[in-house]
Amino acid sequence: MTKRYDADVAIVGYGPTGVIAALTLAGYGISAVAFERDRDIYSRARAVTVNDWTMRIFQDLGIDERIDKVIDPQRALRWMTYDRTEIMRIEHPPSTLGRTPRFYNIYQPTMEAELRAAVQERYDDLVTVHYGDEVTGIEQDADGVTVTSTADGATRTTRARYAIGADGGSSATRGRIGCKLLGDTDDVTWVVVDCHVKRWWPDRDFLTFWSDKERPVVDIALSAGNHRWEIPLKPDETPADYPTSAEIWPLLKALGVSEDDVEIHQHAFYQHHVRMADTFRQGRVFLAGDAAHLMPPWAGAGMQTGMRDAHNLGWKLARVLKGELPESWLDTYEAERRPNAAFYTGLAVGLGRVIKQEVSEEEQAAMNAVPESTVTPFEPPLTAPPVLAGGWIRGETGDASIIGRMIPQPITGDTAGRMARLDDHLGHHFVLLGDQVDPATLLSAEEKAGWDGLGAHYRAVRPKTSHTQGPDELVDLDEVVLPWMRRYGARVIAVRPDRFVAAADTHGLAVPTV
């Protein structure tokens, strides 16, 4: 087979997952070619939120300022009954990951347009996108992947080293590489009603789940003056009963919403899925986003989980292609992303049981209970900072361990007095941080050689009350990093490029194995 390549990576599907893959790869100088069956962005608002973890990924990609302009901070979550009794509330404390809000409301078509524009403006020389081009075949061999596609009756053959299937829940890529989608689909059909806001009403900025056994409703403010309701059809109803907005209005009016409040923009129907592919990889082809996993919307994590897949896979693929990491590193993609997708799927299912009033009082009390005597301050799973459950880490994870946790991102200073968010000082590197010590001085020769082989940087972190002592040190201006390390008894931590702690002196500082 010829070793000529049209691009390093082929991306099938150019929704949010595919675009984040392209941005991540291009940021490392890796070329990509994307195939998108549709010529335009899907006009219906699907995802409704992003959180601080996703915003940190946007920061890593250099687009957070751009995206911040088209999204709105979210106030809080609440679960209410129709008599306005509040069942549960999740307040959003200030984020520890870089920007203050924990959650943002989005309007997906607008955000997608900004993501695509960022690729075109920044990486037009590295990323080629074929719109209206439907992939009809994927074949792979020992050296690469051949993608066959058709557009306007013409056939195109494209050769790449690897391929990413980001072509959604009905992914043809998944079937072409022999992966099976396991799980179930709920038989209840929901109508999603997207509206333009005409006037403000009290508490519009809450994300409200109206809890009811027969007609639970999702009620959420979207960005850019949009609002959405998601309402289940009754067993004796079908989409044919709601052909136009006229039939939709009685559903909204039952919630106290009138023509004075909103204008119905569009409505669509869907069902909830709890499904996951039996594997996320076959050889040189990877699955990401809905192609790999489908979850109910209750945790607001479906689209975000896909974008996190793409970022995780993207930086690893890029370093493998550049010869900076061995090919075996690609095995860590599924090891890290499958548990996280399963976590958010389970969380979504649990929250859905609350809104549908399927939980007992005992279960509800357990969900609202706050654990005692924990090392890590408790936060509800929906808002807690992310933790790796497995993958490229060394040591056990858990409440009292720093391993696998995402390092907080305060404002830090460098020796020259420059102040910026932590990630801006760390760069796209593996970095060892020491609590008032040069971490390199605490490594054995073998440990140092292992981290040097990954191009690691070594930086002492000083409190703001002391002087720096070397050219590569950081100052903990917000007094966040050092207390965080000391909470877990860690004097040195090894931070991955995606800001997860891979190792610490509490568990040994040898490079984790792949």
TrEMBL record:
Domain of life, per UniProt, equals: Bacteria
InterPro entries (alphabetical): FAD-bd, FAD/NAD-bd_sf, PheA/TfdB_FAD_monoxygenase
**Which UniProt keywords are listed?**
Monooxygenase, Oxidoreductase
Q: Which GO terms describe its molecular function?
A: monooxygenase activity
Span of domain FAD-binding? 6-341
Q: Which PANTHER family match?
A: 3-(3-HYDROXY-PHENYL)PROPIONATE/3-HYDROXYCINNAMIC ACID HYDROXYLASE, FAD-BINDING MONOOXYGENASE
Which protein are we looking at? Answer: FAD-dependent monooxygenase
> Could you tell me which species this protein originates from?
Streptomyces yanii
| Organism classification | Bacteria, Bacillati, Actinomycetota, Actinomycetes, Kitasatosporales
